[in-house]
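Handout, section 3.2

Students often ask what a structure token actually looks like in practice. Rather than define it abstractly, here is a full record for Proline iminopeptidase. The first block is the sequence as you would receive it.
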Amino acid sequence: MRIQVDDVHLYFDVDGPALVPDGPGMAERPTIVTLHGGPGADHSSFKPIFAAAAEFAQIVYFDQRGSGRSDHADARSWTWERWADDVIGLCDALDIADPVLLGTSSGGWVALTAALRHPDRISRLVLDSVMPGPTEERLAVFERLGGAEAREVARRYWAGESTDEIRQAWRNVCLPLYSRRPDGDPDAADRLRRIVWNDDVLEHFRHSLAARFDPWDQLGAITCPTLVLAGEDDPVATAPAARRLADALTGCPVRLHVLPDVGHGVFRETPAHAFELLRDFVTGGV
């Protein structure tokens, strides 16, 4: 389904009901709005695993502008602020009053930006594998997981090299190191093939947007309860960075879980544990 949000049509999909029978009445369940990473990927990265969350919440998926089946729009509108405002615009269009925003990887950057720009519109925040560590910290994890070659490929890729050689090396050498449990996720290869990528958004991120995201001195302004999930072996959103993020969220209740033997994308790496934590967070107390 596609819906008009300001100047674009955004593709969205839904798992699970918002209202469920409860004796003589209907009980309202929380609505979780998922924000995919990439940037430039799409919502299919959440499927089918997030169907598990539909047991206790309504799940809304959507493709951010520039990505997937949504309008690409003008590249000048591919900004953290515009993406964040689109989230609120989508919630307005769908009449979602108190969304739980769940962002994975760069989707968490969008969720954080939305929480800062629209603090009265978000009930809870879930940040999965979100904050990148300093370059040296990330390179050290790549070297620990994949040796000197992985470190050098990551260094060159993050330095902005745009040759086909370095992009292919990144895909072949570094991306496999994102996951610590590839054999435990038989759908992983097919899920990657299902994503409708916009490489222009990814390149825009590499060369411009990544350097412009620096919310650290604003994080104390976030007031909604926040769940931070991280993998101890994540080579991008490092475990120390997740701990620094939790410490910086001084204005809200925070739950931090750093999981051993887990890489990038906690919900993909250890779904049973992650969804147990999510259920408790969105249906329980603060």
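Discussion prompt for tutorial groups: The two ends are 33 Å apart (CA to CA). How would you have guessed this from the sequence alone?
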